[in-house]
């Protein structure tokens, strides 16, 4: 495959990244807007383009159960899901992470019912943020591809051995056509390398056990402490492999993508596809002399708090845009994490939390300009604001 740019959707790019990696097993169930990832991959299997064992299951719970069994046996494993499918997997997600199984799963971000809605927000992915998985967020189809390739390398690193979710926004990124570059198959294969499992159940010469009973003393707590240290330490591993892949393909990788923050007075912090509108609005306002910037974490777990605080250190006011809410909490999940990081980093600028784009509601350029205008007002007042549902009249 040449490196000439062509038009593709995010789902097509993710499916092709997985094809190039060629995992041993994929167990998956279709759900909108993820369906075309596994549909495309199933065609790769049928056409003999991969050597993957594709397991057609009766539910997402069964899909993750099959992935866990295959990964514990020593296979390289991939899957994909979305929304209620991810929720249906929830029982299995901490098991995959607690057993330290390097499964890679794409999630097409889609709202959780009720009411029923098939469009994008982050209520599904944020609902599993504490399940112990590493979490990537893509803004574009190209980034969804790159994140998927990097994810296999990170998950299988001996110092990590954790499952990874690579998230891309439903329809906005999964189905919209973009100009993308697909690297040569051999380039991906050389980068990812052959998978050699460290503790496979099927290695009878070196017997191991998985999913043990830890009901005595502090063994369970010790295991969780080791898990925390592994996911925290994964930040350096993600950055290492991200930089290596970036050097090969010519696309930069940072845990946090910062635009215009060196001299920005007003900064928006957000994840996923809506960062594009924030960045465009910031460019327009800079032409008018208003110094605006955008901070976009590409990784949510482990949370890159130090990098976010560093990017925001010179701001006069900061807005945090969440595409999901945390009912009963002070604000959305990105805001809670970011505010904590800013405080730890000594950033004292006023911070305002916004809930945006739930259920696929439009996040417009005018709304982004409104946020920047409100930041200017809050910088002058020197105080925070209460949580705001952007675009909704009370």
What does this structure look like?
The structure is a single chain. With 394 residues, this protein is an alpha/beta fold. It is built from 13 helices and 15 strands. The protein has a 7-stranded mixed β-sheet, with helices on both faces. The chain has a 6-stranded mixed β-sheet with strand order 9-11-10-13-14-15, sandwiched between helices. The chain has a two-stranded antiparallel sheet with strand order 1-8. Helix 1 (10-21) runs parallel beside helix 7, helix 7 (141-155) packs across helix 9 (219-249) and helix 10 packs across helix 13. The mean pLDDT is 96.
Strand order of the largest sheet: 3-2-4-5-7-6-12
One letter per element, helices H and strands E, the order comes to: EHEHEHEHHEHEHEEHHEEHEEHEHEHE
The parts where pLDDT drops under 50 for at least 5 residues are none
Gross morphology: globular
Gap from first CA to last CA:
53 Å
Q: Report the average pLDDT across residues.
A: 96
| Secondary structure category | alpha/beta
Q: What's the tally of helices?
A: 13
Write down the Rg: 21 Å
Q: How helix-rich are the residues, as a percent range?
A: 40-55%
Instruction: Say how many strands there are.
Output: 15
Strand content: 15-25%
The main sheet comes to: 7 strands, mixed
Helix and strand layout, with pairings?
Elements: E1 6-8, H1 10-21, E2 25-28, H2 35-46, E3 53-56, H3 60-73, E4 77-81, H4 83-88, H5 93-98, E5 104-109, H6 123-126, E6 134-137, H7 141-155, E7 164-169, E8 178-180, H8 185-192, H9 219-249, E9 256-259, E10 266-269, H10 275-287, E11 292-297, E12 299-301, H11 305-312, E13 317-322, H12 333-344, E14 351-355, H13 365-381, E15 388-389
Helix pairs in contact: 1-2, 1-7, 7-9, 10-13, 11-12
């Amino acid at each position: 495959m040449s490196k000439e740019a062509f038009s593709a959707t995010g789902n097509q790019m993710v499916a092709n990244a997985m094809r190039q990696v060629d995992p041993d097993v994929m167990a998956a169930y279709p759900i909108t807007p993820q369906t075309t990832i596994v549909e495309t991959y199933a065609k790769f299997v049928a056409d003999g383009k991969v050597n993957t064992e594709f397991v057609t299951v009766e539910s997402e719970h069964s899909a993750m159960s099959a992935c866990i069994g295959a990964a514990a046996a020593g296979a390289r494993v991939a899957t994909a899901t979305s929304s209620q499918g991810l929720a249906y997997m929830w029982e299995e997600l901490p098991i995959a992470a607690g057993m330290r199984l390097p499964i890679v799963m794409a999630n097409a971000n889609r709202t959780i019912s009720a009411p029923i809605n098939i469009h994008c927000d982050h209520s599904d992915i944020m609902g599993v943020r504490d399940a112990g998985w590493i979490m990537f967020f893509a803004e574009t189809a190209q980034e969804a591809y790159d994140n998927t390739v990097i994810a296999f390398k990170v998950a299988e690193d001996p110092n990590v051995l954790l499952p990874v979710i690579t998230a891309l926004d439903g329809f906005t990124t999964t189905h919209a056509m973009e100009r993308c570059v697909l690297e040569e198959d051999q380039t991906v294969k050389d980068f990812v390398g052959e998978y050699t499992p460290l503790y496979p159940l099927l290695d009878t010469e070196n017997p191991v056990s998985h999913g043990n009973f830890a009901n005595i003393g502090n063994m369970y707590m010790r295991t969780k402490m080791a898990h925390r240290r592994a996911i925290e330490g994964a930040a350096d591993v993600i950055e290492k492999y991200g930089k290596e892949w970036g050097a090969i393909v010519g696309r930069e990788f940072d845990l946090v993508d910062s635009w215009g923050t060196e001299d920005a007075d007003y900064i928006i912090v957000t994840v996923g596809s809506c960062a594009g509108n924030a960045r465009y609005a910031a460019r327009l306002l800079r032409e008018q002399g208003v110094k605006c910037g955008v901070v976009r974490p590409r990784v949510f777990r482990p949370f890159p708090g130090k990098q976010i605080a560093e990017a925001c250190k010179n701001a006069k006011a900061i807005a945090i845009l969440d595409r999901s809410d945390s009912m009963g909490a002070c604000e959305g999940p990105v805001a809670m994490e970011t505010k904590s990081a800013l405080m730890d980093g000594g950033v004292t600028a006023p911070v305002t939390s916004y809930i945006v784009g739930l259920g696929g509601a439009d996040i417009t350029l005018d709304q982004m300009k409104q946020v920047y205008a409100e930041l200017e007002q809050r910088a002058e007042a020197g105080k925070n604001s209460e949580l705001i549902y952007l675009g909704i009249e009370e």
